[in-house]
Write a structure and sequence with these properties.
547 residues, alpha+beta, BirA Bifunctional Protein, domain 2, five-stranded mixed beta sheet, 33% helix
């Protein structure tokens, strides 16, 4: 990321803590890098995003129903889906910096390119230079905080080139990529790292059984010990779900029959998922615990690509509709070598983050893979019978088939980050003394804003707080989240709510007692107008609906 881009992320992280959007989990104990807590404003923003998604996907459609499935499912679900065997990432360690990363996400310098190792500072560069000399018997040239002298020779080899030499003095195996932080090519071999979180269910004392097994098999080799321990663990092992999708496949028949749904139809779900990520990055962009908004849309075989395009466009427009900068949202089609084993086509809806375009939501055509796998492993008939359709194989009326599936799957957590980045705005304004000052505004869409309106008595006397609290009570009765705020000068309160993303501030002042009017201030324009206090609720409601 550029300096300016880093600055934006730093500002977002700082604002999130200062205004109560997001806190580091367990911060008083040093924090946990892979987990975050959503503060008073963050939890409201996340829920508003998810509620808007649920409204558009379920409440406003006749062809989609919803479920809320258990986080812990039968282990056979994950065996059938392939997660136990294949849900893994290629894990690599840098032999010099000890950085651990995913091989498939690492930079890939081409043949002939230089391989500079860029350190944090000169001290680190010197330390890495000495470590490389000791381990690999070469001395890289130190240029400030950069180590030079390495170059890609061919697809399998890189070498050390002395000054002004075109012939490598020493060669090393090249993995085709380098460490993402430092650019170091001295790497360990890849090893597969399963992303599933495993725990135990039931009264089984696993540790005691493992201890007894180890005691009784002191002379066994490492392979036998590993196999024995695995067998003990498997007896009571369960997994925290890495995705919400599988429950919707498992409950396909129950949802279809109980709600009399006809293909095409969808099952939607929102909820927590967990992945033991090798690397967590970019604040909440990639973390071990996150919230998903996912839907499985079951369609007739042969129509999946038509429906894939439909949901790709539908989802892209949904994200744009709440954004200040819709041009930053695009979609990208996966190349054939990017497709998951179950998919015949896939699109990513991407957003232009400070580090570049990256995934926000995937829209995949999963074929009939999942339903067939669960039918095979469970013995259940996860198929659909259409009395009105002719069987293409027999030519007879009545067609039983396994539906194909279109899956729009979005991260609510990642969506929250996107809208925070989209909303952040700085402008220069005059303060009360006529001096230039920087005004920070979170221009969140009004329906996403954590607080819809702030109710502000101008002073804490003369009966103004009482009038303000009456207005607050009216909003609460209508189910609209507002905030009563009487602390500090009115200008400071305006700025505070600008940073919180509050779209409207309603001020109760001396004139309110005279004519029953209040001032409503618009967050984005700072324009103010007098409105009847008794009409404040209706006016805000109308503006929210029309926003």
């Amino acid at each position: 990321m550029s300096k300016e881009q880093n600055s934006l992320m730093d500002k977002i992280v700082s604002l999130c803590k200062q205004r109560g959007f997001i806190f580091q989990s367990s911060e008083i104990y040093g924090g946990l890098k892979s987990a975050y807590d959503y503060g008073p404003l963050g939890v409201e923003l996340k829920r508003n995003i998810m509620n808007e998604w649920w409204r558009s996907m379920v409440h406003e459609r006749e062809d989609v129903t919803g479920i809320d499935a258990s986080i812990v499912m039968h282990p056979k679900v994950w065996h059938a889906s392939g997660h136990l065997a294949g849900f893994s990432d290629p894990l690599v360690d840098c032999l010099i910096s000890k950085e651990r990363f995913r091989a498939d996400k690492a930079p890939q310098p081409k043949v002939g390119e230089e391989l500079p190792i860029t350190c944090i500072d000169k001290g680190q560069a010197k330390a890495y230079q000495e470590a490389i000399k000791k381990r690999f018997e070469i001395e890289l040239r130190r240029n400030g905080k950069t180590l030079e002298g390495l170059r890609v020779i061919d697809e399998k080899t890189f070498g050390f080139f002395e000054t002004d030499s075109d012939v490598s003095a020493t060669t090393f195996p090249y993995a085709g990529y380098v460490g993402p932080t430092f650019g170091c090519p001295f790497l360990s071999e890849e090893r597969q790292f399963n992303l599933m979180f495993r725990t135990q269910l039931g009264p089984v004392d696993v540790l005691n059984r493992i201890s007894k097994f180890m005691e009784n098999n002191r002379d066994a080799d490492s392979k036998a010990i590993r196999e024995g321990v695995d067998e003990i663990v498997k007896e009571s092992a369960v997994y925290l779900r890495p995705e919400t999708a599988q429950a919707m496949f498992v409950q396909f028949l129950n949802c279809q029959q109980s709600m009399s749904m006809k293909v095409p139809f969808g099952i939607a779900q929102m909820g927590k998922s967990f992945r033991n990520e090798i690397t967590t990055e970019h604040f909440i962009f990639r973390s071990c615990e996150f919230e998903q908004m996912e839907m499985e849309f079951f369609v007739e075989p042969g129509t999946q690509h038509e429906w894939l395009d439909y949901w790709r466009d539908k989802r892209l427009e949904w994200w744009k509709s709440y954004a200040n900068h819709p041009e930053k949202f695009i979609y990208r089609k996966h190349d054939a070598d990017e497709l998951a084993h179950y998919a015949d086509a896939c699109y990513d809806i991407e957003y232009e983050y400070p580090w570049g375009y990256d995934e926000l939501e995937g829209v995949a055509s999963r074929t009939d893979y999942d339903l067939k796998k669960h039918a095979e492993h469970s013995g259940a008939k996860l198929s659909y019978f259409d009395q009105q359709k002719e069987d293409p194989e027999t030519g007879k009326m009545g067609w039983r088939y396994t539906p194909y599936v279109i899956e729009p799957a979005a991260g609510a957590t990642r969506g929250l980050l996107v809208y925070l980045l989209d909303a952040y705005h700085e402008e220069t304004v005059k303060d009360a003394k006529g001096n230039d000052s920087t005004r920070v505004v979170m221009k969140l869409h009004p329906r996403l804003a954590p607080i819809k309106a702030a109710i502000l008595p101008l002073v804490k006397k003369e009966g103004l707080p009482e009038i303000a609290r009456e207005i607050v009570a009216d909003f609460f009765k209508a189910g609209i989240n507002v905030k009563y705020d009487e602390n500090h000068a009115i200008g400071k309160r305006y700025r505070r709510h600008d940073e919180a993303g509050t779209p409207y501030c309603i001020t109760v002042d001396g004139q309110t007692k005279e004519d029953g009017t209040v001032t409503i201030r618009d967050r984005d324009t700072m324009a103010q107008e007098r409105i009847p206090a008794k009409e404040a609720l209706r006016i805000v409601q109308e503006r929210l609906v029309n926003s």
